[in-house]
Each structure stands twice: as structure tokens, then as C-alpha cells.
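Hi there,

I know you've been waiting on this one. I reran it after we fixed the sequence typo, so this is the corrected version. Both the input and the resulting structure follow.
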Amino acid sequence: MDWGALFFSHSHFLSLMNHTISTSIEINSTKEKVWSTLINTSDYQWAEFLNIKGTVAPGAQLEVDLDMSSKQTFKPTVTSFKPNERLSWLGKLLIGGIFDGEHIFEIEEANGKVLLKQTENFYGILVYFTSGMLDRDVKPGFERFNEALKKKVESS
């Protein structure tokens, strides 16, 4: 048996079950203002594509609506909460391993501005079949959300 070929094919198969989407935007503001706008879910009228409901806190379950061709709602759990730096949550379709998404917001200072990075790591069996749709529908949605957040923060 060719263990190297088996390992490569197994590793290759696993890589097909992972997909990452990353976006970023510079915002003329402070980390604190970007953070407070991001977690103030009671004032999300400004939001495009991604609408977050609930209290953003460590371990909290949120309700997240994605405005794609049809509205998708997920109920992820906050997994990382570092004020003014990082917010992440993990959402799962049905049970873990089918279609999971780890969503991450990172806030950094860069050249006297704030750099907001938004990343989603998708993994699970269905990712292989949906990666084209994710790039086509989700990435532009994240970019719209970033632009809307920038406009909200810079105008208030």
C-alpha cells in the first residue's frame, strides 16, 4: 500500500472541506468606536448583509441573519470576546462537521487608522459543494457590511 498517496489523498480531501473568506477595510476612527458600533446590536439599522441580534458577550448565543438571495439565519455562539480587539463566533448547520462557520472580526491600529478584518473559516462536508457560492455571495456581502460599518463609524 502506498501510504504517501493515501495520506495525500486524505489531506487533499480534507482541504476540500475547508474554505476561508477574508475582507478588510481601513476606518478613520478609534478601535473603541469601531468596537462599540460593532457590538451595539440594538442599533443595527445601518448594517448591510449581516444583521446581528442579541447581547454580544463571552459564550452568548446570537442570532445572525445573512441577506443573500434568500435570508439565512444562524444561531452561533460567541467563542472569543476581547474588547476593542477581537470578536468571533461559531455557527453550525444542524450538527458539527456538516457545515460550520467560524466568523472573526479583528480590530487593529494601522497608520493612525483602524483596520477591521472580517474572516470566515468554513469547514465541513458541505463546504466542498458550496465554496463557489460562498465566494460569489458571501464575500461581497462582507465587503458591503465593512463599508456600512465604516460609514456609520465615520459619520457619528
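Quick highlight: The chain has a mean pLDDT of 87.

Best,
R. S.
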